[in-house]
Amino acid sequence: SPYDVSCIITTLTGGDEGACTSTEDQDGEACVWCLASAGQGLCVTEQQSEIAQQAGIQCGSSTTEGDEEEAEEDDKEEDDDIAGSPYDVSCILTTLSGGDEGSCKATEDQDGEACVWCEASADQGLCLTEEQSEIAQQAGIQCGQRLDG
């Protein structure tokens, strides 16, 4: 499902690369670890990792080399219409580039809506679209309100 946040939940609960790659998404596929900087990683589904890679973020190369190349070919056609969907990584990219709550709320998703800051733990936050934040809240993650100007 495009609403699958099972891999992202691993990040929000403090999971590292090992925890990520041993986690499965809702379709039973292994999650992929993406590394945006030395101190910031994110666990995502294979399709989400392909979007992140299009934005220049390194994903999966140290953990899923063979599987990723096959899946990349299978999923390329599905990434064409990501605006307005949980695949919109505009807000997540703010997190991966070291953004904080302020920069998150100042960022807009591909539909022009303000991003939402979610607190997973005392030292781990995540910038999500409104739709993604609603899914995260269903999993018990605290998310702030979207700023409407």
Descriptive overview:
By secondary structure, the protein is an alpha+beta fold. 36% of the residues lie in helices and 17% in strands. It has 7 helices and 6 strands. The chain has helices spanning 6-12, 17-21, 46-54, 65-75, 90-96, 101-105, 130-138; strands spanning 32-37, 40-44, 58-59, 116-121, 124-128, 142-143. Strands 2-1-3 form a 3-stranded antiparallel beta sheet. The model is unreliable at 63-83 (pLDDT under 50).
Features:
149 residues, alpha+beta, 3-stranded antiparallel beta sheet, 17% strand
How far from one another are the termini?
32 Å
**Major beta sheet, strand line-up:** 2-1-3
Major sheet summary line: 3 strands, antiparallel
Order of helices and strands: HHEEHEHHHEEHE
Structural class comes to alpha+beta
The dominant shape is: globular
Strand content: 15-25%
Mean pLDDT: 75
Enumerate how many helices there are, as a single number. Answer: 7
Rg measurement, Å:
14 Å
Number of strands: 6
Which blocks of ≥5 consecutive residues have pLDDT under 50? 63-83
User: Helical amount among residues, as a percent range?
Assistant: 25-40%
In terms of topology, how is this protein built?
Elements: H1 6-12, H2 17-21, E1 32-37, E2 40-44, H3 46-54, E3 58-59, H4 65-75, H5 90-96, H6 101-105, E4 116-121, E5 124-128, H7 130-138, E6 142-143
Antiparallel strand pairs: 1-2, 1-3, 4-5, 4-6
Q: Would you kindly provide a brief summary of this structure?
A:
With 149 residues, this protein is of the alpha+beta class. It has helices at residues 6-12, 17-21, 46-54, 65-75, 90-96, 101-105, 130-138; strands at residues 32-37, 40-44, 58-59, 116-121, 124-128, 142-143.
